[in-house]
Write a structure and sequence with these properties.
The complex is a heterodimer of chains A (90) and B (271).
Chain A lengths: L1 H7 L4 H18 L5 H16 L7 E7 L4 E7 L5 H8 L1
Antiparallel strand pairs in A: 1-2
Chain B lengths: L2 E6 L7 H14 L4 E5 L7 H4 L10 H5 L5 H4 L1 E2 L6 E4 L12 H14 L2 E5 L6 H8 L3 E6 L3 H14 L4 H4 L5 E9 L1 H5 L6 H8 L3 E6 L2 H9 L3 H4 L4 H13 L15 H6 L5
Parallel strand pairs in B: 1-5, 1-6, 2-4, 2-5, 6-7, 7-8
Antiparallel strand pairs in B: 3-4
Helix pairs in contact in B: 1-13
Classes of the chains: A alpha+beta (90), B alpha/beta (271).
Amino acid sequence: MTLFKIFRRGGSAPIARERLQILLAHERGTRNQPDLLGILREEILAVISRHVPFEPDKVQIKLDRGKSVSTLEVDIEIPNGFGAALAKAS
Amino acid sequence: MAHVVVVTSGKGGVGKTTSTAALGAALAQHGEKVVVIDFDVGLRNLDLVLGAERRVVFDLINVITGVAKLPQALIRDKRLENLHLLPASQTRDKDALTEDGVAKVIDELRTKFDWVICDSPAGIERGATLAMRHADAAIIVTNPEVSSVRDSDRIIGLLDSKTVKAENGERVEKHLLITRYHPSRAARGEMMAIEDVLEILSTPLLGIIPESEEVLRASNIGSPVTLSNALSAPARAYFDAARRLRGEVVPMIVPSENKGIFNKLFGRKAA
């Protein structure tokens, strides 16, 4: 690892270039576009709240942008007792 | 026909004011009639870099609000009679900077000067968008560093959408000025190379200004670097950039300090 680091040292410019290329490709695509993440968040929460009660501040939304694939993670904390309500409904 | 040029960057501290002063002076040294305008309302500094800080009476906002006439607010440089400064206001009242007011001032300056150079504040707020609003051309000052390149990309987007030219379906002519460049660090892969930055921003290159202690020395004494030490590496780079701005074809080289063998062997300052 140390040897590896010694060889790597001084060569950070290519990393900078690659990070910028990925970031700017994304930012240019979303420039002057509506806030996609905001819209998704609102619509997903609207759909879920129609069926399940939850507190809006117990919702976590994470986005991880990769080179070819990005993931959107929506984590909603639902109070206990929801399972029973669901069983009754079905 | 006057050229209105904005010097902009998005990011702060990359060398907009230094470059405005150096390019404005270089053009004036070529015999062109130049005015440099400080758009950084509340945080003016172009007066200081030009060594005119004690001569400021009226400013851009005074002219816009009608407190002063334009000729009263213009400060003529003591060393270069072709170089003039329109300072920014020190008040925090940025709302006084109106679009109509700026348009009137720029139109009047167009009739009196060959070059109207607008020194933009950092950021993408009102001052920055008004500085670029009426530009025919833009100089985007960029350091070969990730945050500066990202912000330059953002500014290029604004130049292509929020300027009068862009709104009329025309294009603002864009030039990239790379400052604080270390050729040796780029050669070792420690700093992005010029080609990397050009490829990412796809904007034609106006010049490459090498990192130099002469730039700090120039601002310390209140003189554009093209005047304080015209033979220094950054001054020669700014002279080349100014000639390109005038449409001349100048080979793109990064000037280096001409150090004698004595200096090379025994340190930087022999004298």
